[in-house]
Design a protein that fits this description.
The chain has 270 residues and is mainly alpha-helical. Helix content is 50%, strand content 6%. It has a three-stranded mixed beta sheet with strand order 2-1-3, covered by helices on one side. Keywords: Membrane, Transmembrane, Transmembrane helix.
Length: 270
């Protein structure tokens, strides 16, 4: 257990459209997920989280001289550590100051290789640069194949992640992206991850069973609003769609796509 219990840590994350909930920033979720994993393992002390609307940042954010981007990390009791607003650097600081709590083994390079291209293919498909989903689906199959190998390596484990039965740093980077791929494509392109990619669905099922992932995840509405805004800027059609999403979600309990297809679930659980 860490003995740095008096240290004050603040993590700034992207605010949602309501200014309070988690916005659809996969880097923010990556950092929050990592910190929550370490907190759950009693490695890091309790930390403060502050939502940031970059167009109207709070005073606590502005006074640190940060460059109007999130996520950002500030460690109040460590004057030798400057505020950090580069995601990779935040991960490095958290790992160096509070090591442990995640799986580390020799499968990291293989996991990184298997997941290196799916997000760019998703962006190409969503933007219409790719005329169909075949390139994206090829990358999803690559991830599924890798996860199949990991499952065979740990046959008695119920949870399945990229390097084994526990979350790793690679998972903290990949899962927020993969979940946004799932939600955005289903809501915008009417594309659903094939149910026959059972190891990929088992991977998502494992993530949805992890409090660190669930408690740092943006709601579906935020993911849809973000990708409609990002991938179709200035489009009247998508502005209307965004208004519909905002109206449908206003004053209602946030919705999250944490279920998996029945056919995939049956294969995974039996």
């Amino acid at each position: 257990m860490s003995n740095k219990t008096s240290e004050k840590i603040t993590i700034f994350f992207k605010a949602g459209y309501d200014g309070k909930c988690f916005g659809a920033c996969y880097q923010s979720q990556r950092v929050l997920m990592l910190a929550k994993l370490k907190l759950n393992e009693h490695i890091i002390p309790s930390f403060k989280t502050i939502a940031v609307n970059i167009s109207r940042p709070p005073e606590s954010f502005k006074k640190l001289g940060l460059r109007l981007r999130v996520p950002a990390l500030y460690m109040d009791a460590s004057p030798d550590i400057e505020p950090v607003d580069v995601p990779d650097d935040i991960v490095t600081v958290l790992e160096s100051q509070y090591p442990g709590g995640l799986l580390k083994n020799d499968l990291v390079n293989e996991a990184e290789a298997a997941t290196s291209n799916f997000f760019s293919k998703f962006c190409y498909f969503l933007r219409g640069i790719a005329k169909d989903y075949f390139q994206l689906e090829t990358e999803l199959i690559t991830i599924n194949t890798h996860l199949n190998k990991i499952s065979d390596k740990y046959p008695s484990e119920s949870k399945l992640f990229l390097c084994g039965p526990k979350l790793s740093l690679v998972d903290c980077e990949v899962l927020p992206k993969l979940h946004q791929v799932r939600v955005a494509l289903a809501g915008i392109k009417d594309y659903k991850i094939p149910t026959n990619l059972v190891y990929l669905w088992r991977y998502l099922y494992s993530a949805y069973s992890e409090p660190a992932f669930v408690k740092s995840c943006p709601p579906d509405s935020e993911i849809l609003l973000h990708w409609l805004d990002t991938e179709h800027p200035g489009s009247e059609k998508y502005s209307q769609r965004q208004q519909q999403i905002l109206a449908a979600s206003s004053g209602k309990e946030a919705q999250y796509s944490f279920s998996i297809p029945v056919t995939a679930k049956q294969i995974l659980i039996e």
